[in-house]
Amino acid sequence: MRALFIVNPQATTTTSRTREVILGALAAELDVTPVETAYRDHARELARGAAADGFDLVLSLGGDGTVNEVVNGLLATPEELPRPRYAVIPGGSANVFIRALGVPGDPVEATGTILEAIRAGREREIGLGRITGEQDDRYFTFCAGFGWDADVVQQVEHERGNGRKATPALYAETAVKLFFRGDIRDPSLSVSDGGRSLEDVYFALVTNTTPWTYAGALALQPTPASRFELGLDAFALTQSSHALTGWVLSQMFFPKGLPAHGDGYVTWHDQASLRISSSHPRAFQIDGEYLGEREEVNFHSVPKALRIFC
Question: Which residues neighbour 138 within 8 Å (Cβ) at sequence distance 6 or greater?
């Protein structure tokens, strides 16, 4: 099997020695071609050209940002060519998509699991989310967020530009700072599922699986029934008092996640499409990557979009 191995050399939780060990294990069983990314969206370009270059499989080593780029590249494979399978080795700080698949968080152990899956022909067909709008036509693997969480992602990217590592502690610190600063108190959002519309929303998420994110080893689950095999789920915060918002967030840490019904929020389950709009530009992110400000985004469920070894 010919495999393209896309490596993000800036991956936060791997060393050059770890990458050498992983490449050696892959090369022992696959005809593998390694390539390092050099700039933003490079992984997307490489994955898009994989089929034309004769690769049967694309593997990536990196975090959720690298995964998102590779997935979007694979989904852009020309229709006349067979789309390569995909396999993911974790190398980021959160690795939400990879952990949601059940792949081990340790990159060497994950490599072993993936090679076992390839030998056994064990693969999984998963659905994805897709965003469309005046500025967008892009897939996401696990979540998209309007408002507070996107503000957090934007601030963390700024801190990374100043030399700080994107650790779970940095995300938590930033989230708490923005929360108590009052950034969340902006009820400008509206969420529509085509049949009903919810106004005066402070913060909204659309998810393709659970969890939404991790705080270290702890999973945050605002939409615990969300699955790769179903449509999209969503969460909307409708009140913004510190006490109530803190209670809602605390419930997301429970093993069963946030209940589907409760005070101060509304959820949706297994939706084919959703729309979120804002009365003024608000921060927006997908898969932990800040995309800038948006006033309206359409969300679509794309069933059985990708075949993945895991």
Answer: 72, 130, 131, 286
114, burial (CB in 10 Å: exposed 0-12, middle 13-18, buried 19+): buried
Query: Rounded to whole angstroms, how far apart are CA atoms 32 and 57?
Result: 9
Q: What is the pLDDT along the chain (310 residues), one digit of tens a residue?
A: 999 999 999 887 889 999 999 999 999 999 999 999 999 999 999 999 999 999 999 999 999 999 999 999 999 999 999 999 999 999 988 899 999 999 999 999 999 999 999 999 999 999 999 999 888 999 999 999 998 889 888 888 777 777 777 666 777 777 777 766 766 789 999 999 988 899 999 999 999 999 998 887 889 999 999 999 999 999 999 998 888 988 998 999 999 999 999 999 999 999 999 999 999 999 999 999 999 999 999 999 999 999 999 9
Q: What is the dihedral of CA 240, 220, 65, 278, to 10 degrees?
A: -20
pTM score > 0.70 for this model? yes
